[in-house]
Amino acid sequence: MTLPVALPTLTDDCSNCAALCCVAYPFDADEDFALLKRADIPCPNLSDSCLNCTVHADLLPKGFGGCVAYQCAGAGQRVTQELFEGETWRDDPDLLEHMTYALRVVRPIHEALLLLQEVSNLPIPASAKRQALSLITALCPDNPKSVHDFEVPEVQDALADVPAYLQSLAPFL
Question: How many Å apart are CA 88 and CA 117, to the nearest integer?
């Protein structure tokens, strides 16, 4: 399956992110998170001097299994490096809610792209592979400069179509 567009990087690269996952999402104090945290509030385990987790080496023993399981599929560094040109909410606190919102928009798109990329390895009919390519193309806007480029109907409609498409592959597996 030859891709008609260049896919973004779909693997995590925390060194090029702004610890967006540690800010964007809420934590429920349960078996996955040792504390309660609201969305758009930095985790108290983030270092004050940089964007590093102070308990990263001990996430499981400290009760942060949700952090261990989390994957952004490359959305964090894409938001930080491409949409915000390397700026961080730590450098400019006014960016915090814009960056976390962008992560919550871009991450599901990256997850869908990751799944659709795997379709190329499946023994499915050519028509199903063409449909995957069509979805991939729709999920990859040309030169996105803001989160709004990911919120256009073409991208959001394609994202909404991915679950049904993946379910349609079941008879071939």
Answer: 30
